[in-house]
Amino acid sequence: MVLVFGGAYQGKLEYVIQNYKIREIEIFYCDNCKEIDFSRKVIYGLEKLILNILKDLKDEADPIEYISKNLDKMMDKIIICTDISCGIVPTDPLLRQWREAVGRCMALLSQRAERVIRVFCGIGTVLK
Predict the structure, then answer these.
(1) pLDDT of 80-96, one tens digit each?
(2) Is pLDDT above 90 for 42?
(3) H-type helices in the chain, by residue range?
(4) pTM for this structure?
(5) What is the band of 8 on the pLDDT scale with cuts at 50, 70, 90?
(6) Are strands 2-6 and 42-44 parallel, antiparallel or unpaired?
(7) Within 13 Å and on the Cβ side, how many CA atoms surround 76?
(8) DSSP 3-state assignment of 42?
(9) Structural domains of the chain sorted by starting position, each given as residue range(s) with its CATH number in brackets
(10) Which residues pair with 124 in a beta bridge?
């Protein structure tokens, strides 16, 4: 697994496309989903999936539990996640919970990842 993270609009997806020769059809976008399509090579926008899981009040799903349960399916993937841990802590309880869940999921993924890359201004720095 490769975990690529960085701030918003820092060129994470472009970095992955260029450095891993990814085609559009290989990218799964997590915009409005609560589950990942594991048939794709790249999972883009993991933070959105986490928010969607937290928003679904009917289902008491835990995003960390979902990631843990599917770790084996993610081992051959490139996961792209926006780092939302910087800046002012949100006053909205859901957004605070989201921020914490994204951080915990990224920590879990980085432990299992073969490579962790931080992208800043389009430049990737390998951390692991």
Answers:
(1) 999 998 888 889 988 99
(2) yes
(3) 12-20, 46-55, 63-69, 71-74, 93-112
(4) 0.92
(5) very high
(6) unpaired
(7) 6
(8) strand
(9) 2-126 (3.40.50.300)
(10) 119
Residue type, 49: L
What length is written for the chain?
128
- Read off the amino acid at residue 65: E
pLDDT band at 58 (very low <50, low <70, confident <90, very high): low
The alpha carbon of residue 88 and the mean position of all alpha carbons in its chain are separated, in whole angstroms, by 21
Cβ count within 10 A of residue 116: 19
Dump the DSSP string for 97-116: HHHHHHHHHHHHHHHH-SEE
The identity of residue 8, as a single letter, is A
Tokens 């926008």 belong to which residue?
45
Supply 93's token pair: 């309880």
Give me the amino acid identity at 1. M
With a cut of 80, say whether residue 124 has pLDDT above it.
Answer: yes
- Parallel/antiparallel/unpaired status of strands 123-126 and 115-120: antiparallel
